[in-house]
Design goal:
The chain is of the alpha+beta class. The chain is 37% helix and 26% strand. It has a five-stranded mixed β-barrel. The two termini are 18 Å apart.
């Protein structure tokens, strides 16, 4: 059997495969460039919200409101507080989520801050009307990583506003919570102001990786085609 037709047809299949792979890698690189622009815009918008003057806490919130600085006035319902497991720069412990009843009757859940396990029953409980300033945060339904909230056992692994409100028979409740800012005393418990605002931004590295792989495919294809041409001439 003459092998030349098979040899002549081989570059065609190779060309199609290399072209598909090259186009796919370029598309992935372009997508990462677009994601990079989106992420930079997101970071800039969130940074602007964090450093803006606080505004009155809204009745409801969307993703466009997350990390906005807000302020609210009311009275804490300390007997309805929920302790949510937390891992912070201060170690493991609990977030103290305390309902704040406003003058209009609407309740806001306020993450007053962190307490270590040994202090979960002896943190400060201010009485009367208080003013809270902090970052608006969206609810965290379901639970934490590999752990579901267990309202019946009063075990909380995420700040699920609806579930905590239902377990504490609180209503009406705004569908978000507030991460309170740090208080005037650094030694007071709970410790506020521990919100971590961090958005991984590896899109540039990913884009460069995809473009390099595309260039490697083009280079390998060129080498194979040159070798194939030598074999046919030989």
């Amino acid at each position: 059997m003459d092998p030349r037709p098979e040899k002549a047809g081989f570059p065609v299949g190779l060309t199609l495969a290399a072209l598909n792979l090259f186009v796919g890698l370029i598309a992935l690189g372009v997508w990462q460039v677009e994601r990079l622009a989106w992420k930079r815009d997101l970071i800039a918008r969130v940074d602007a919200r964090i450093h803006a003057a606080p505004v009155p806490a809204p009745a409801s919130a969307t993703q466009a409101d997350e990390y906005r600085r807000v302020t609210a006035t009311g009275a804490f319902l300390h007997d309805k507080a929920a302790l949510v497991q937390a891992a912070t720069v201060r170690g493991a412990g609990y977030w103290v989520l305390t309902p704040l009843r406003q003058a209009n009757g609407v309740i806001l859940l306020v993450n007053r801050g962190f307490v270590p396990p040994e202090a979960k029953a002896r943190y400060d409980r201010p009485q009367g009307v208080v003013r809270v300033t902090g970052l608006l945060r969206l609810t965290e339904p379901g639970g934490g990583f590999l752990r579901s909230n267990d309202p019946a056992a009063d075990r909380w692994y995420s700040r699920d506003v609806a579930a905590i409100a239902a377990a504490r028979n609180l209503r009406p409740v705004a569908g978000y919570f507030i991460d309170a800012q740090a208080g005037p005393s650094p030694n007071a418990l709970p410790v506020g102001g521990l919100t971590v605002v961090s958005f991984p931004n590896n899109h540039l590295q990913y884009a460069i990786t995809w473009f390099i792989l595309a260039a490697m495919v083009a280079g390998a294809y060129s080498l194979v085609m040159r070798q194939s041409g030598k074999d046919r001439r030989g």
